[in-house]
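input
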Amino acid sequence: MSPTTPPPPEPAATPATPAGGAGSAPGPPPASTAARAAESASASNAPPGATDPSDPADRDAVPPSPIRVVVVDDHPIVRQGLVSVLDDADDLEVAGAAGSAAEALRLVRTLQPDVVLLDLEMPELDGVQAIPQLLALRPDLAILVFTAYDTDERVLGAVRAGARGYLLKGASADEIARGIRTVFAGSSYLEPRVARTIMAAVQSPAPRAETALSAREREVLRLVADGLPTKQIARSLSITERTVKFHVTSIFQKLGADNRAQAVALAAQRGLL
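output
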């Protein structure tokens, strides 16, 4: 019996060519890589400022706080209308509303708002007189005057007292909101008519010969610069309105001014205030 012949050895297996090897098309990336690529492409097309809910930093981001405003006007309908208008703006918040300057002082002391929207003509303490007191409570407070009066003494008195802006009633809701944002940012906001009044006062003609003001005339002049009308000046100094008018006329003659605005501007230039 012949010996059994052993079977021939099996040929060695040829190793498979790895995907993506030379001469072959690249295969699809792993699912995780594809997902990351899609996220990256999506993020690159996102609008500026968009947040990514999957990013912990974005999830924890705190939206900017609204500008807190106190509205001051002695007319209830006007006051309520302003509150309604401001409440419609996403970046504004009405912290409180007051019907008098005295009430406004209490609210500013308690609520510490960012901006006060202030009427000037109010009973007892008027807006121009209230401005320095409001700023004493909160020095960084931004005050935007909102009034129907654009007389020279009112405009200059309010700005000199520390108001950052001056708007006339009749301004649109958008303009009121824009004025609040502007003064909050630290800039001034003046209606064109108001700006012209201030420019006219600054650019007033050179004065005529000057005679020294008396002590009483200086007192009257300071109150005129504060924007007080004749009646309130008379009450403050315990003199008659006729006497106030006499002193004002004398001040005009001595300073070479034709009106109250010029008198205040000239006095400021000469260091009399």
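quick obs: Residues 12-25, 31-35, 37-51, 206-210 have pLDDT under 50 and may be disordered.
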